[in-house]
Amino acid sequence: MITTGQKIAIEETKHSRLPGTDLANVKFGRTFSDHMFVMDFADGEWREPRIVPYADLQMSPACLVLHYAQTIFEGLKAYRSADGSVNLFRPQANIARMNKSAHRMCMPHIPEELFMDALLQLVGKDRGWIPGDEEGALYIRPFMYAADEFIGVRTAETYRFIIFTCPVRGYYTEAVKVKIETHYSRAFPGGTGEAKCGGNYAASLYPAKLAHDKGYHQLVWTDGMEHKYIEESGTMNIFLRIGDTLVTPDTDGTILHGVTRDSIIQLARREGIPTEVRRVTVEEVVNALRNGTLKEAFGAGTAATIAHIRSIAHEDREFELPSVEDREYATKLGGMLDDIRRGRAADTFGWMVPVR
Ligand code: COI
Fold first, then answer.
1. What domains, with CATH codes, occur in the chain?
2. If you measure from the C-alpha of residue 201 to the centroid of ligand 1, how many angstroms do you get, rounded to a whole number?
3. How far is the CA of 300 from the centre of ligand 1 (A)?
4. Chain centroid to CA 63
5. For each successive 10 residues of the chain (356 residues), what is the average pLDDT?
6. Would the CB of 260 count as within 6 Å of ligand 1?
C-alpha cells in the first residue's frame, strides 16, 4: 500500500540511448527518454511505484483497455533555463485534471504527492534528454489504463499508471488551415468532452481525416447539438481576436480545461487585453471573417503552445487571416509564456516547479 512519502524504487538503464540521439532533430512524439515511472492498482490500492528503463509493455489480448477504451492521459512539459535549471510548467494543474478525468472514467484517484514525486524524480533522472534551445522541451506523458484480463463490459479492478517522457521541438511547422465542422461532433452534453480520455481522440480521427483529404490540417469543432457554437480546434482550445477583444469559448462540460488556455487567459488579463470567456457562435466568427474584424486565431495546447491559424473555411468559403507577423496578441502572449517557462521573466503566478 502506498502511503505519503513512500519511496519510489529505481532501476537505472544499463544502456542509455542518449549518446545516439540527436536532440536537435527530434520529431514530436517519436523519441523516448531512457526511463519511465510505473505503478499498479489492485485490491483497492496503488502498489510498487518504480522508475525502470523505458520498455515495451506485455499485456493479454483480453486486456480491458484494448476493447472498451477505459484509459486517460495527460500532457505537460519540462523546460531548461539558460542557467541549466529545469522546471515543470504547472504540474499541479495536470495532476488535478488527470484525477478529474479518472473520476469521469471510473478509474482510481492518484495521490497528488506521489504523482508529483514521480514527475520530479523521473524528469530529474532523464534531465539530459531536454533539448536546451528555444524550441526544445521535454514532453511528459502520464497515462492510466484498465488492466484486467477480462472482456465483460464493466469498470476494471486493476489499473496501470505510467509516465514516460519525450524530447520534443515544435508540433506544427507552419500556420494551420482549419475548417469549421458542422456535421460530425467531438463531444456532446453529458459526454466525456472535458475528460482527457483516449476515446475522445479516437472519435475525432474520421472527421479529421475527411478534412485532411480536402487540404485542411485540422477541424474547428462545434457543439454536438446544433453545430452553432465554436468549441475547440483540433486537439487544442481555440482563441480568436475579434476587433481588439480576445475571445475563447467557456468550458461547460464539452471542452477540455486546457492548462495553456488558462495561462493565456491569465496573462491576457494581466496585460489589460480585453478578454472574454463566453459562448462564441459560428455566425459571429463567420461575420467577423467576412468583415475583416477577425484579426487573429490560434489553437492553444501543451504540445504546440500556440498554433497560428492561417485560414478558416466554412461551408464552401475559405477565409484567409492576416499574416502571422501581424499577430500582436498571439506573439505577445506566446512570448510571455515562453519567457516564464525558460526563466527569463519573473514567475509571478507561481507556475514553475523546480526539478532538483
Ligand atoms: C496538446 O496540445 O497538449 C494535446 O493534447 C495534443 C496531444 C494529444 C498530442
1. 9-168 (3.30.470.10), 176-341 (3.20.10.10)
2. 10
3. 9
4. 26
5. 70 98 95 98 98 98 98 98 96 98 98 98 98 91 98 98 96 93 97 97 97 97 98 97 98 96 98 98 98 98 95 97 96 97 97 97
6. no
CB of 242 sitting under 6 A from ligand 1? no
* CA-to-CA separations, 353 to 54, 70, 115, 119, 301, in angstroms, rounded: 24, 30, 13, 11, 19
The sign of the torsion formed by the CA atoms of 52, 55, 57, 58 equals negative
Residue nearest to atom 9 of ligand 1 (CA): 303
Query: Which string of b and e fits 331-341 if b means at least 16 CB within 10 Å?
Result: eebbebbbebb
242 φ/ψ angles, rounded to the nearest 5 degrees: -110, 115
Closest approach atom of ligand 1 to CA 304: 2
Helix axes 259-270, 91-104, angle to 10 degrees: 130
* C-alpha separations of 37 from 77, 96, 144, 164, 199 in Å: 16, 18, 12, 7, 23
Distance 42 CA to ligand 1 centre (A): 29
**How far is it, in rounded angstroms, from Cα 107 to Cα 98?**
10
Q: What are the two backbone dihedrals, phi and then psi, of residue 192, each rounded to the nearest 5 degrees?
A: -110, 20
| Ligand 1 touching residue 218 (CB < 6 A) | no
Residue 137, all three cell numbers: 522541451
Residue 294 to residues 40, 92, 335, Cα–Cα distance (Å): 49, 34, 21
Separation of alpha carbons 73 and 25, rounded Å: 26
* pTM of this structure: 0.96
Q: CB of 302 closer than 6 A to ligand 1?
A: yes
Residue written as grid cell 506573439: 331
- Does ligand 1 have an atom closer than 6 angstroms to the CB of 301? yes
Per-residue pLDDT reduced to its tens digit, 27-81: 999 999 999 999 999 999 999 999 999 999 999 999 999 999 999 999 999 999 9
Q: Determine which helix (DSSP H) or strand (DSSP E) holds 103, and give its type and residue range.
A: helix 91-104
Q: Whose CA is nearest to atom 8 of ligand 1?
A: 235
Work out the number of other CB atoms within 10 angstroms of the CB of residue 92: 15
